[in-house]
Every structure is written in C-alpha cells, then in structure tokens.
Amino acid sequence: MIFIIYSAIIFIATICGAIAGLGGGVIIKPLLDMIGYHDASTIGFYSCIAVFTMCIISIFKQVKKGFSFHLSIVIYISIGSLIGGLIGDTLFKNITASFDDSTVKFIQSSFLLITLIFILCYTLKQDQIKTYHISNPIFIVLIGLLLGTISVFLGIGGGPLNVSLLILLFSYDMKQATIYSIATIFFSQISKLARMMVSGEVFVYDLSFLPFICVCAIIGGYIGTLFNQKMSNNSIKKVFIALMGFLICISLYNMYINF
C-alpha cells in the first residue's frame, strides 16, 4: 500500500513540478513527512532521486522543443548550485546527527514555511516590484550558491525560491523562470547524489522504492513538461500560487505534528 501512496504523490508532484518549475521536491518532501513512514534522511534521498529524474526528462523535452538557454547564466548558476548543494547537504547531516528525527522535520518545516510565505507574498505583488538584469558572473554564482544550499538542506529541490529569484534578478517571465529553475535544480541535486554514491551512503536506504519513484518521476516529468509548453505565463502563475497556498498548509501541519 505504501508503494502506491508514494507513487501517487511522486507522480502528481513531478507533474506540478515540471509545470511550475518547482522540481517536485517541495511537494514530495512535506507530504512524505506528513505520512511519517520514513525518517527525514530517507525522505530527502527519495525526493532527490525523484527530482533529479524529473529534471532530466523536462530539460530534454524543453531543448527538443527548441528552448534555448543563456548558457553562461546556466553555467554560473550551476557552479554555485553544485557548491551550495554540498554545503546544504553538510548542514543537513550535522543537524540529523545532533537532533532526533521529529526535531529535524520541525526545523525543516519551519524554514520551509517561512520561505513559502515570502515567495507567495512576492508572487502576488511581483507586478509592482522592480526587476533586475544581473550579469556579473560572481553575483550569479552566489545566487546559485544560495539556491543550492537552501534546496538541498530543505530537501525540496528549491523550485519555488528559484522561480521567484530568477524573475526578480534576471527579469524572466514565468515560463522562462520555470525552465531555468529546473536546470538549476538538476545541478544542485547532482552534488548530493555524487557525494552519496562516492561515500556508499546510497546503499543504506531501502532501494526497493527506487523503481516506483523513477518510473513515476519520468512519466510525471514528461506530462508536466507537455502542459508547461502549452500553458500561458498567467496560467502557470495561477498553478504556482495555488501550490504555494497548499504547501503552506502542509508545512503548518508538519510543524504541529512534530512539535
């Protein structure tokens, strides 16, 4: 039964993630926390696998469709995201070693709630807020560093924050921001997975879930990308806002049950 529940969550999450640039982790992590079947570390691993798989499918389809990335921006953000991913993973490991699982989930849910409220407020008011055209490579790397650190530490893939900052700092429209967000998420997750493979940590987890996770993420990423390519900026924004509201409620619930 738990395989079916996990599969359904990952399938729906990766569809939504590919549509709105969320990656899916921001949906998978709090929902699996709410179910409480696995500890925070295992949930973070499953979320990372699902998000990474979805990103591969989504990027491939976007490039095949003809979307052209500003390669320099992707490279600089990705360098920062790779480093940030290592920092975020180290922070997470230190916290899991210092606190029990309920406390770790409470800390993550608290930070996630604050992040989501900030993002929702910005998204609702973004038409009234000045945007920028950042081009300095150092600043772009630092932006990637921030995104990679937060996304891996929270185990969410970083999508909502990515989208908001890409719109604010690079003046992208909603659709462009979602695609660049997924590219950034892809590289931030590489650093975490690479460290886990090298250290052998990946074999600590129950790998029987991985086939279900990967298949659902592939199908979800494919369907979500198809929707993204056909939807307008305004429609994507509405999906994004609705998901932020839903996730704020889930984060509040997770804080309550783990308090």
Describe this structure in words.
- This protein is mainly α and 259 residues long.
- The chain is built from ten helices and no strands.
- It has helices spanning 2-20, 25-35, 40-65, 71-98, 101-125, 137-154, 159-170, 174-199, 210-230, 233-258.
- Helix 4 packs parallel to helix 6 (137-154) and helix 4 packs across helix 8.
- The two termini are 27 Å apart.
Which structural class fits the helix and strand makeup?
mainly alpha
How much is the average pLDDT?
86
What helical percentage do the residues reach?
A: over 70%
Cα shape: globular
Instruction: Report, as a whole number of angstroms, the end-to-end distance.
Output: 27 Å
Share of residues in strands: under 5%
The major sheet is characterized as: none
What Rg is obtained from the alpha carbons, in whole angstroms?
A: 17 Å
Spans where pLDDT lies below 50 across 5 or more residues: none
- Total number of β-strand segments? 0
Order of helices and strands: HHHHHHHHHH
Number of helices: 10
Which SSEs are present, and which pair or pack?
Elements: H1 2-20, H2 25-35, H3 40-65, H4 71-98, H5 101-125, H6 137-154, H7 159-170, H8 174-199, H9 210-230, H10 233-258
Helix pairs in contact: 1-2, 1-3, 1-9, 2-3, 2-10, 3-8, 3-9, 4-6, 4-8, 5-10, 6-8, 7-8
Give the key terms:
single chain; 259 residues; mainly alpha; 10 helices; globular
Question: In summary, what is this structure?
Answer:
With 259 residues, the chain is mostly helical.
